[in-house]
Design a protein that fits this description.
Blueprint: E1 14-17, E2 20-23, H1 37-44, E3 53-55, E4 62-65, E5 71-74, H2 78-88, H3 95-111, H4 118-128, H5 130-135, H6 140-147, H7 151-158, H8 173-184, E6 188-190, H9 193-207, E7 218-224, E8 227-233, E9 238-239, E10 244-246, H10 250-257, H11 264-270, E11 277-285, E12 300-304, H12 309-317, E13 325-329, E14 347-354, H13 357-365, H14 367-388, H15 393-396, E15 397-403, H16 405-412, H17 426-430, E16 442-444, H18 453-469
Parallel strand pairs: 4-12, 10-16
Antiparallel strand pairs: 1-2, 3-6, 4-5, 7-8, 8-9, 11-14, 11-15, 12-13, 13-14
The site of flavin-adenine dinucleotide has 32 residues, from strand 11, helix 16 and helix 18.
């Protein structure tokens, strides 16, 4: 494995600052219960008893704070979620229709063959997948409009838009349903935190004769005809193999290989628009901070400052944080294990969507200008947390680190700092790269060539492994159940 960063794990890596460990990006995942893909992957390699997971609070793994101050919790299972919304907003409309449609779409998605051929669509599509055929190009907003879902319910249901990094007017309903159904089947963090998860996987690879080369950024990929011959890294070393698996962004890799060397049909798929990212404020808190005093627990908090996620997105585009949304997470509360922070201390991570361009332009001017922009925006985000959640937050801060989309670009080598590879629009849902490339000995294995998120990338990796080895250990068409009890 050739890794450009000095730490393994991509966006799931953990970094240390001033005695505190911070989750660089990933906070919660799904598919970790028996039958889920992450669990079954770990079981297959014999690590299911060593890498275990902790479930987020069953009463609400996400807490949505509405502009009127109401807190609506997101429990496991569609029915419980519908009840919570209806009890917070009894005047809600469209919920029955919406959840019926979502359940049908998810059931049809679970039945889809993994490789969809055009003649399957033409012959069987409308007969076996009527809802998918009808809504495959739909956004979440289209579903809401179709079901006449009321404003308050729309806001609750899309308060976690940061998980998908698109507002409902641009977000594919299929990605949205995948995520809501996935977390609805169980939202987890690793018992030994993401650091333990990644470290154990690295040790496993090394124990089986694999090598991990850190700080070996791939800078050139040579090919002849339909064959990759080798890759060269920043240190000048050249590596060759029978088969190459590319986890870096496929679009960037294609430019490195030579765009014209790809078949025209693949060039078309490679021209995807990237997803966005945002700002993360990582705080290490001093001893004496008691999260429970501030309604902070084993869940994430998503705070909406407006009723319309589309408007909140536009506000963030203008850097108008006070009209947007923000996210709060306390990784130290997701497991009883220690090691993330000094004894008795917690970490708090605050995030929201912000565009890449202002940070890039400031960084191109000077580091001082970029740093000032980051700090000014982080301070305004902290002001919002002070105003709405933790009035004395500033007294508790021991360590403060701020990440922007440019940080993601610098440390995780994500073009334009993208969070999820290609943007989760309807277009990128229905026309999407797979593992297969124009080269006989090169496979894509990245969020943009399969599915995003950790569940998605584990799924993408498992499927490629099964294709390459014929060691089929997981039914290829299975989604996790939508209620923890069914999982
Ligand atoms: C703010 C944020 C929050 C998120 N929260 C969650 C969450 O809570 N749950 C969840 O499931 N998902 C979350 N995600 C999404 C998730 O992190 C990604 O979808 C997933 O990590 C994609 O995996 P990947 O393997 O495709 O890419 P990455 O994780 O980006 O890994 C790619 C790796 O390739 C390396 N690389 C790139 N170029 C080169 C090169 N030239 N040479 C060598 N190495 C190279 C990078 O350094 C990196 O290690 C979040 C993302 C962000 C940004």
């Amino acid at each position: 494995m050739l890794e450009a960063h000095d730490l393994p794990g991509g966006y799931a890596h953990t970094f240390k600052m001033g005695g505190y460990h911070f989750y660089a990006q990933v906070h919660y995942i799904w598919g970790c219960g028996e039958g889920g893909r992450i669990y079954e992957f770990l079981k297959h390699i014999g690590l299911d008893e060593e890498i275990t997971f902790e479930l987020f609070d069953p009463d609400g793994y996400d807490h949505m704070i509405m502009p009127d101050g109401k807190r609506v919790t997101i429990p496991y299972g569609w029915d419980a979620l519908q009840e919570n919304i209806a009890s917070a907003y009894p005047e809600s409309t469209g919920l029955d229709r919406f959840f019926d449609l979502v359940k049908s779409l998810r059931e049809e998605m679970a039945r889809l063959p993994r490789k969809i051929r055009w003649w399957d669509v033409a012959l069987k599509g409308w007969l076996f997948y009527p809802n998918l055929m009808r809504f495959r190009h739909a956004t979440v907003q289209d579903l809401f409009d179709h079901c006449d879902v009321s404003v308050e319910a729309r806001t609750v249901l899309t308060a976690q838009a940061g998980d998908l990094l698109l507002p409902r007017e641009r977000l594919s309903c299929l990605f949205y349903i995948g995520l809501l159904g996935g977390y609805g089947s169980g939202a987890y963090a690793p018992s030994e935190f993401f650091k333990g998860y990644i470290d154990r996987l690295v040790a496993f690879i090394q124990s089986r004769g694999g090598d991990l080369y850190l700080e070996e950024k791939v800078t050139a990929i040579s090919s002849s005809g339909r064959t990759i011959n080798g890759v060269t890294t920043i240190s000048g070393k050249t590596f060759s193999a029978d088969h190459y698996i590319c986890n870096m962004d496929p679009q960037a890799a294609a430019h490195m290989i030579g765009w014209d060397k790809f078949k025209p049909s693949e060039q078309k798929l490679l021209q995807y628009e990237y997803s966005d990212n945002g700002i993360v404020v990582y705080l290490g808190l001093k001893p004496g901070f008691t999260p429970g005093n501030y309604d902070i627990g084993n869940y994430n908090t998503w705070h909406c400052l407006d009723w319309d996620m589309n408007e909140m997105w536009r506000a963030c585009d203008r850097l108008d944080l006070e009209r947007g949304w923000f996210f709060l997470s306390t990784p130290t509360l997701h497991s009883a294990a220690s090691g993330m922070a000094p004894e008795g201390c917690h970490t708090l991570e605050i995030a929201t969507y912000l565009p890449y361009q202002p940070f890039r332009e400031a960084a191109d001017q000077s580091y001082a200008e970029y740093h000032a922009l980051k700090m000014q925006l982080a301070d305004r985000l902290i002001d919002l947390v002070v105003k709405h959640h933790i009035p004395d937050l500033r007294d508790h801060i021991a360590v403060k680190v701020v990440g922007s989309p440019v940080t993601s670009e610098d440390f995780c080598h994500a073009p334009f700092g993208n969070a999820y590879g290609s943007a989760m629009t309807p277009k990128n849902t229905t026309t999407r790269l797979g593992a297969e490339t124009s080269f006989s000995n090169l496979s894509w294995c990245n969020a943009s060539s399969g599915s995003p998120g950790i569940y998605g990338t584990v799924m993408t990796g498992m499927e490629l492994y099964m294709d390459l080895t014929d060691d089929v250990f997981f039914p290829l068409d299975r989604l996790p159940a939508t209620s923890k009890n069914d999982d």
